[in-house]
Amino acid sequence: MRVRRVRPGRGAGQRGAGADAPQAEPQGAVLPAHRADPPSRPEGQGLVCRGPAAGLPGRRALRRAPLHNPRPDQGSRWRQRLSHKFAYYPAKFGHVLCTGCGRCLRWCPAGMDLLADLQTLTATAAGAAASSPARPAACDATPVAPTHTCEAAPRPGMVTTCGNIYKPYRMRIASLRDETPDVRTLRLEFVDRAEGESFSFEVGQFGLYSVFGVGECTFCVASSPTRKGYLECTFRRAGRVTRALAQLDTGDTIGFRGPYGNTFPVDEWKGKNLLFVAGGIALPPMRCVIQYCLDHRADYGAITIVYGARTSQDHVYKEELEEWERRPDVQLWRCIDWKPRHDGTGLDEAPAEEGWPSIRLAQPQESTLDPAHRRYTAFVPHLVEAVRPSPTDCVGVLCGPPIMITLGMASLRKLGFSSASIYTTVENRMKCGLGKCGRCNVGPIYVCKEGPVFTAGQLEGLPPET
After folding, report:
1. How far apart are CA 62 and CA 377, in angstroms?
2. What is the pLDDT of residues 1-48, one digit of tens each?
3. What are 265-298's pLDDT values in tens digits?
4. Measuring CA to CA, which residue among 141, 171, 165 is closest to residue 151?
5. Which end of the chain is least crowded, N or C, by CB within 10 Å?
6. Total domains present in the chain
7. How many CA atoms lie within 13 A of 306 on its CB side?
8. Is residue 152 part of a domain?
9. Which has the closest alpha carbon to 222: 232, 212, 209, 213?
10. Are 373 and 400 contained in the same domain?
11. Measured at the alpha carbon of residue 174, what is the angle toward residues 169 and 176, in degrees to the nearest 5?
12. Which domain holds residue 45?
C-alpha cells in the first residue's frame, strides 16, 4: 500500500502535480538517513547543523526540496522559524532544534533555550547600564539562569564605555567632505552630549555604523582619541549601506555601535622609530594612529609615512597629506601606480603623471630618491624598498588591500624587519563585531575579537584569505 503525502495547507482532495505531491515509500521500507526522524541525544550533547532543521533534510535542503513552502516575506519566515523552534520541534522531538536561520557559528547546543538567554542578556546589560547614567538600560528583565554560557558584558581587554554593547549611540553628522568622487568622510557628534563626554576608544578600534532602516557596515574610526567631542569615518560607496550613507547630509542622524576590537600597542612603541605604509582607501585606519603619534610627537622617534593610490586624484585626505609634507618632523613619501602598456605586455615605466617621476621597477632599492621631492610613480611596496627605512629600533605598520599587505610584508622582511615588528589591521566583513555571527572567522580566530590589529607573526599560520 502506498500513502500519498499531502502538502501542508491542502486538503486530501487537493492533489499537487509532479514533485509537489511526491509518493511515500511502501509500508515497512527503510527511509534514507536524511529523511529519518532525528535520534534522541544525551542532554548537553552538541548537534551539527546540516540543514533547515538538524537531523531533518540535509543536503537536499539546499535545493528546492519537495513539499518546500517558502514564505513570501522576511516577517513570515521569522514567524515560521520561531514557531518551529519553540513549539513544533520540542513537541515532536523533545528538543529545541536548528531552523536554518544561519546565525549559528558551527555547533548548536542541544537543549539551548534562546528565550532564557535573551532575558539574561538584557538583564545583565541593564545592570551594567545602571552604573552609567549616560546609558540607560534598554529593558528591565528578570534574570533567568541560562542553559549554556553566553556573553553579555564586555570581553576582557575590550575597551568600551557603553553600558549595553549591543545598543548603538545616536550620532549627528556635523560635517562631511568628499575625498574623491566615490570616497566620503563624515564627522559625527553625539546627539546626547553626556554620552559624548563619557565615551572613549583606543587607537585602532572599529565600530559599526548604521543607517536606520537600511543596515550596518563596519569601519575603523578614522580620527584619533586625542581629538575629543567627535568621531570621523571614511568610506567608499560600494554597497547598499555605504550608498545610503552617501545620500545623507549635514544634520542627519545615524547609529554607531562600538568601540570593538583590540588596539595598536602605542605605549610599547614609545621611543621607537615608526614607519607607516598605506594604500588607497586603507589610509583611514592608519590615520587614527598617525594622528595619535603626531599629537604625542615627543614620545616617538622618526616618523616615516609611505602612501600610494592608483592616481593622484585617488589620494584621500589631500589637505592633511600636504600638511604632513610641510612638517619637518615627518617624512611623507607619496606614489601613484604605473600604467599598463598599450600593447598589454606589462607596465610602462614612464612617469604616470607629470611631476611624479618613476623609480626603477626591477631594482627599486637601486633607485635614487630626492628628499626634497617625495612624489613618485611606483607601487607602494616598491617605494618602501626605494626609501630603505632602517629596521633598527623601528616598527612597521601596514594597511591596504590583501595583495599590498602580502607584498609590503615581503619588502619589509627583505629590508630586515622581523615578523614581530610588523603590524597590520585586518578588515574582514562582519555583522556583529562581538564574535557571534562568525562572518569574520579566519582559521582559529575571529577578527572582531582577536583583531583587527595583528603582527605579521600572528598572521603567518592563518589561511591565505588574510
Report:
1. 50
2. 444 444 444 444 444 444 444 444 444 444 443 334 444 444 444 433
3. 999 999 999 999 999 999 999 999 999 999 999 9
4. 165
5. N
6. 3
7. 26
8. no
9. 232
10. yes
11. 115
12. 34-65+72-109
